[in-house]
Amino acid sequence: MATTSSVSGVLRGYVLPALLLFALPVFGLWFTGYASNWFDERIRSAISQQVMQDRELDEVQRKEVLEAYSTFSAVEACMSTDEERAGFRASFGDGCTDAMQFGWAYRGALGLVLLGLASALIALMCGLAAFISRPIQYLSFVVGWNLLRIATALQVIGQGALAVWLSYWVTAVLTQRYSVKLILAVGLMAAGAAFLVVVAIFKRPPMDFEVEAEVVEESKAPELWAHVRKLCQRLQTPPPDHLLAGIDANFFVTEGDIRVGERTLRGRTLFVSLSLLRQLERREAEAVLAHEMGHLLGGDTGHGKRLAPMLARFGQYLEALHEGGLTRPVYYFMLSYRGLFELSLGRSRRASEFAADRLAASVTSGRDVAHSLVKVVAYANFRDRVEAALFNRDEQHQSVAIAQRVAHGFAEYAQSEALQGDLNGSVTPHPFDSHPPLSARLENVGVKLSPEDMGQMLVEPVTSSWAEAFEDADGIEARLWRAYESRFSKAHDVALAYRYAPSNDEEREHVERYFPPMTFEAKEEGHEVRLSFAEVYCEEWAAPVHLDEVTTATTEDRMFKKYLDLLLNGTGATQGKVSICLNKLKDSEALLAAFGHYLGRHRASKDHQQSAERDAA
Length: 617
Known about the structure:
By secondary structure, this protein is an alpha+beta fold.
């Protein structure tokens, strides 16, 4: 059942949307065939009329001429280079120009279909090749990305041109009229889509990886630095160039550039969590360090460094395709290729995690590795629970004190049923890798731990921690927690401004701190607009409109003026539709931006209140 469900999910999420790549070209093939037949029928009808009215022809001759033109194709005749049809092309004149358009459109649509099939084959072959080995994974992605971005760029340009052509001929053939506005709109969309894609192909995305931590020089933690160097010497891999100390719930190594404050670190960097080090015995922390050095030894970080820029550019390219309108079918196709590659990437990353765990077990012991894994996962999950509970509260915090709450509540959590629920199937948090489930990692190092063993292990006091090896561990933690908790409080305050449907003065003041009353001046008297978190009022209206009454808000050009039209649900004093003439305001763009912002806040607040009522029920 699970397998069937996962296959169905892949089909719905990746395969079927990817087929949209062929939707417009296939429609183009059908329509050009239909339009060519429609065109030929008109010509045959005209010829038939002429033949029937030609008194110089007898019945036999008329029949022969009509039979000769019964299979006549204007497209073939006009696009032919035969001398025999030169007379027809000359006499047909502008009609041949139209017929040749159908012919070229058919060839273009067919070319797009064939290009799509070739792209699908390239994506499939490169995606499957990525499963063979890590070097081939890298090579397959280089080939796949470079070929597919060219192919999809051609698709965007080709489908854009086809869409513009169809915007004229579909209406011309089916309704005997055409819309200039439609042609211009599609043309602008096609040009915009092509521009976005071309820019995205050549634009380099920012590669800054920012970490909130402090750089620890060797003089500030000489014992730990000596241990890491000794470990690397034993494993025969160069030691890290930099050591970072932070409070995130993970450890990691990377060879990519890292920004720490105003500094950019290059080379090999090891990040250690002081908060986690306090939870780990030295042997357990050494198992974690051996695991991370194993990633350096195994080439995982180097492989990641090579792939990271291309993956970032791919992500930027996907974003451009998603935002390009007409490029959405191409976006789904490229997304399916990215999904296939991510499967191989996840598989190799999980294999790397297992290999690093086994290496760490050989350097320390399977027991040390297992204990460190359980403690890291438990701490990370409990911290997430604490932060989620704090952030979900619908009242301001005098002090979030996350570090203290985690420290004081961890022992109780370790003895609760929630712990086992979090440990079963959970993965170790990490900024670069897709880690396997905890149960699989424990099995990989040959250790079995019962729920009771895990709970007991987590409440046992730590006798010796590597955090003690830092000269200013307490100071580093205090500074980092202070900055983190300050950001957390500010984010929570903003969230409250979106949640509140103010029921008292305190809540109203909080909302107005982020959504203050605004006035938009008019170019002449009588058209001023006032906006608050609850309502909008234009001096032309009989009464203010509460934002709860607004069903839709759209802009429209009428009589050479631009309007903001608000469709109302009819529950207030003003019913039906009201409008604001934007041309009468000094800064109409500011009003549009603010109104969208305030209306979004109001709807978010309404959704939150309804969700809270459902939870309470």
